[in-house]
Design goal:
Distance between the termini: 22 Å
Number of strands: 53
Mean pLDDT: 80
Number of helices: 4
Radius of gyration: 37 Å
Helix content: under 10%
Low-confidence stretches: 1-17, 628-699
Strand content: 35-45%
Shape: flat
Structural class: mainly beta
Length: about 725
């Protein structure tokens, strides 16, 4: 009896733990590492070891990772996953996969793509200061060590992904920016000193996202004169698609003071180094201004201060204030000067403070003035550029006026080569920083590629346009001529196959024109644009009622295609042919389809006009097994409303053997893995969806346990009674 009891108990306990969710994450890179944790609070700043298992990983060489999640959530805040691949930005996921306590193994999959930094990587150098550490209230002196101090900000910034925790083992390599900082001391154009410092994950001192590091150099001048200290930061991190050096310069003098005025500024600072638009920013700097009879007799004098705020790479002045300042109380103690400004747009703001003496007398030696600067970075909103005419437009001349509209103030350029902003030499005329216009000249017959890039966009980020020119006839008079399939501008054509027609600025105002066998009489029917008489290919497009559909459920596809010749004199018409990706087809502007098998299908719409010109559009639809517990019908199995980490709608979630009865894979519709590090680019934070707890299974398990327990007690009592009877 005892053996039977123990066997039943073992079976019950074995059944109770046989439940989990296996999620396969698929990536576009082969070598992928993963770290997973349980979140202990809403922003996942507090974590514990992963309560599930890494079935495939933590290092994978075939681009796939498999994590096994418990049947019920370990905590109400779900899980965080960190996926990394050398040379790419990290991906961070936050999920609450669960079978709600039901038994069985459910599976799901998600796809994600690694990417490099899309915007140009820049490490801003700021607060560059040159001082005399021996006598800090005097300029630098010959053979005295000069101290050069500044800060370098990380090229990366943290975004709110809903996960505050970062695994320490990944921090330096994937959240840090490898940066080289170089100092040059220039006397005119001659470099008299050069030094370099490196910050890298390999040496455990990479500049972590959202932080700045102090950079200090020392220099011992060996001659008097005026010098420039130039500090340049270069981002050498392999997570960057491209980078652009950033530098700050500081003028300083090396002198033995004699009948001379001088000012020194140091320790420039702001009350908020990362402000928001509309915040008041207070700039503070320490100043001293003296008259030196000689190197030892110093007298404080009043000063004039100038505060200038400049924005963006083109140093657009947005604020400038000049004010007088009283003399410092003595010759060795600095006074603090302050200035407020309010940034009105996102961009890098450079604040420059200059100081000079405010006296009426002259001195034997030139005055030494002071200048300090600091940079404040308000993260840029992602740059959006729209261009008119749009790519693919047919034009009818050798030149074209292009207008570009941007969502933030910037400068734009164009050219015929696919290069970055710096490589383009033709500037748009920019009126307000948002509206840009350029006359593009030099088009020839056929396809003409034009490239537009705005403020530091790389060749991968610029806008690729194509304009098609069929024939160009400009500023000409054609008599008794035959012109076929031509586009005519500023020309008059008489007594040709285009009969007695006057065509000016692309409008036929009189006479007949015959194009592709179609004749139009403008004298009878009125003037018309030539573009309406040229057969142009339709532009195929469509919408679909579902991107993820259950087997047997109807999906409706609706054409939204357009044709420049509808309406118009050509009386063009369109026909529609649908290919549903499973060897079935349909026709008509609206088509419906019921898929009978699971999978991801590519739907193709081909639109053809009456001139046999056509174009196609494609989309995908993912078909999953129906849920027997839903109102939509269908079979059993697990279901997910999730989107993939690459923000597509093609996610296949399928139940495996054994099937999960009434199991539901739960993740939020907005839950997706996103890059956590990105300068000037924002991503939608990942949200944690709520998970309904299933107490029914717990109650059933408890009742089974109690029954087994009572059965064991009964067996013990029965055995005791039998032994007593035998003893009697």
């Amino acid at each position: 009896m005892k053996q039977l009891t123990y066997l039943l108990l073992f079976i019950m306990l074995s059944i109770s733990v046989n439940a989990a969710v296996d999620v396969t994450y698929l990536f576009d890179q082969q070598n992928v590492a993963v770290v997973a944790v349980d979140c202990l609070n809403a922003d996942c700043s507090s974590v514990q070891n992963f309560s599930g298992q890494i079935i495939k990983g933590p290092q994978s060489t075939d681009g796939s990772v498999i994590l096994r999640y418990p049947d019920s959530l370990a905590t109400q805040f779900g899980y965080a996953e960190f996926f990394v691949s050398q040379g790419f930005r990290p991906l961070v996921g936050k999920h609450n996969w669960s079978t709600e306590g039901q038994s069985g193994i459910a599976t799901a999959s998600q796809s994600a793509s690694f990417s490099k930094m899309q915007n140009v990587c820049k490490a801003v150098v700021s607060k560059l200061n040159v001082s005399n550490p021996v006598e800090p209230y005097k300029p630098v002196v010959i053979n005295t060590t000069a101290q050069l101090d500044g800060t370098t900000a990380s090229a990366f910034q943290l975004l709110n992904t809903g996960v505050a925790y970062i695994p320490p083992s990944l921090l330096q390599e994937y959240w840090g920016a490898d940066t080289v900082v170089k100092l040059e001391i220039l006397n005119g154009t001659n470099i008299v000193e050069s030094q370099q410092k490196s910050f890298a994950a390999a040496t455990n001192n990479a500049i972590i996202a959202g932080t700045s590091v102090p950079v200090s150099f020392t220099y011992i001048p060996d001659s008097e004169g005026n010098f420039v200290a130039k500090v340049t930061a270069s981002v050498v991190d392999n997570q960057c698609r491209s980078q652009k050096d950033q530098s700050s310069e500081k003028s300083f003098s090396v002198a033995t003071l004699q009948d001379q005025l001088y000012s020194i500024l140091r320790n420039i600072r702001v009350n908020n180094p990362i402000p928001s638009i509309g915040d008041t920013v207070t700039v503070s700097v320490d100043r001293i201004t003296n008259y030196a009879v000689n190197n030892s007799i110093l007298t404080p004098v009043p000063a004039i201060l100038e505060f200038v705020v400049m924005k963006g790479p083109f140093m657009q002045v947005v604020s400038s204030v000049t004010k007088g300042a009283s003399a410092n109380p003595d010759a060795v103690n600095f006074v603090t000067e302050m200035f407020d400004f309010i940034p009105l747009s996102a961009d890098v703001h450079t604040v420059v403070v200059r100081a000079r003496a405010n006296v009426s007398f002259t001195t034997a030696n030139p005055e030494i003035t002071a200048e300090e600067s600091i940079r404040i970075n308000l993260p840029l909103v992602p740059l959006e550029v729209s261009v008119i005419p749009v790519s693919g437009t047919a034009i009818n001349s050798s030149s074209l006026t292009i207008t570009a509209t941007t969502n933030r103030m910037t400068a734009c350029r164009w050219g015929f080569s696919d290069v970055d902003f710096d490589g383009l030499v033709n500037n748009f005329v920019t009126s307000d920083g948002l509206s840009h216009s350029a006359v593009v000249t030099g088009f020839g017959l056929g396809n003409n590629a034009v490239f537009v890039a705005c403020d530091e966009q790389s060749s991968a980020e610029n806008i690729n346009l194509n304009y098609f020119v069929e024939n160009i006839i400009e500023n000409s008079v054609l008599t008794n001529s035959t012109v076929t399939n031509s586009i005519i501008t500023n020309s008059t054509i008489t007594n040709a196959v285009i009969t007695n027609a006057t065509i000016t600025n692309n409008v036929i105002t009189a006479g007949q024109i015959t194009i592709n066998g179609f004749t139009y009489d403008a004298t009878i029917n009125g003037q018309v644009q030539l573009s309406q008489l040229m057969p142009l290919a339709p532009v195929a497009s469509f919408t679909q009622s579902d991107t993820i559909a259950q087997q047997g459920r109807e999906v409706v596809f609706t054409s939204t295609s357009t044709d420049a010749n509808i309406p118009g004199p050509l009386n063009d018409t369109l026909s529609f042919v649908w290919d549903f990706g499973d060897s079935t087809t349909a026709s008509g502007a609206i088509a419906t389809k019921r898929y009978t098998s699971e999978g991801t299908f590519t739907v193709t719409l081909r639109v053809t006009d009456r001139f046999a010109l056509s174009s196609i559009a494609q989309k995908t639809v993912t078909v999953v097994r129906g849920n027997s517990g839903s109102n939509n019908g269908g079979g059993g199995g697990s279901r997910s409303n999730a989107r993939s980490a690459s923000n597509t709608d093609s996610v296949v979630v399928a139940a495996t053997n054994p099937p999960v009865k009434k199991a539901a894979i739960k993740i939020d519709d907005d839950s997706k893995t996103v890059p956590v590090v990105q300068r000037e680019t924002e991503y939608t934070p990942v949200k944690l969806s709520s998970v309904k707890k299933n107490n029914d299974l717990f109650v059933i398990k408890l009742l089974i346990f109690l029954n087994v327990f009572l059965l064991g007690i009964t067996a013990v009592l029965t055995s005791t009674l039998i032994r007593r009877r035998k003893s009697l």
